[in-house]
Amino acid sequence: MPSYVAYDEREPKCGQIAIDRMRRFEKCTVFDTKRMLGKNFDEIAIDPSWPFEVKESDDKSCQIVLEKSDGLITLSPEEVSSSILKHIKEKADEYQQKHLKEAVIAVPSAFTEKQKCALLRAAKLAGWERIHYIPEPIAAAFAYSTEMKTPDDSKLLIFDFGGGTVDVCIVQIAMDNLQVISFDGNYYLGGRDFDTLLYNHFDGILKHKHNIDVNVINKKYFLLKECQKIKHTLSVSDSYWLDVNDFNSENNGLINITVHDFNSMASDNMTKIANVILNALKKANLQRNEIDYIVQVGGASRMPMIKKLLLDMFPASIHKCSQYPDWVISQGSALYAYYLEHKEKQKHY
């Protein structure tokens, strides 16, 4: 489920329905709260494509300011996260036809105690009584372990590239157990940052060449959605044209972008991603040719430039990518929840 929450009505709307309503209600819709959770205001990077405002609170944390039809509302990242977790709980309770108390939540490998505490507060607000954490790469390894036979002593590099973060974890299979050797990550870099690159590119051209300010004409979210579509299109096509007429009915101009253009503007991000991988290898005291498997996780890992980077860095490794890389971590978390429940039941025999 996309981590979007709309507050245009009395009850928050979560997931795809919040995205679908953004064209009309973008200024009261929130996303990317994972980047703010448990952090001070001076620790976050403000994204120019955010349709909401983020301010510093009296205790130095983040405050999210939303514009509703009846005025402004201010929420903490924990409150927004609790809306998502409450929505998930209601759906799970309905499906299971009982009141659930415990949940497994996957978090980035380097999530700090402060961030985990903030997430725990959000979960308690949502009605969960007990939370079990699992690192996202380990959840991915759980999921892949059910569909691939991995020889003992194999070394796996889990490459988790989601919407908001890139997380790399190196694990070793030892007697059917997963042993974490090292991990590294960049928690200010994800697939959404590639959307932002495109957004800044087209926003600049619209302003300076066509005298169109998307903020003034309330087209900020429309441009962001177009950039997400362009990112996906450039995964299968060599070029794309943005229609200026969509922003000004009197302007019939077109703005072209090619795969080469996109790759060039993303070069700094790709260097940062490569450095995360190299740091994980260095911490593990391993060379690239000692990695047996590359496990690709997260929707952003579908991008051709990401696949090329991994193949170039690890030409001798076996590369694994699920048909649905977005779901791998949730599948692994569910398997871990099953394991914990089974383990608890065994105590009573």
UniProtKB/TrEMBL annotation:
A GO term for molecular function: ATP binding
Protein name (record): Hypoxia up-regulated protein 1
Similarity remark: Belongs to the heat shock protein 70 family.
GO biological process: endoplasmic reticulum unfolded protein response
GO cellular component: endoplasmic reticulum chaperone complex
Pfam families found in the cross-reference section: HSP70
ATP-binding recorded as keyword: yes
Keywords: ATP-binding, Chaperone, Nucleotide-binding
Source lineage: Eukaryota, Metazoa, Ecdysozoa, Nematoda, Chromadorea
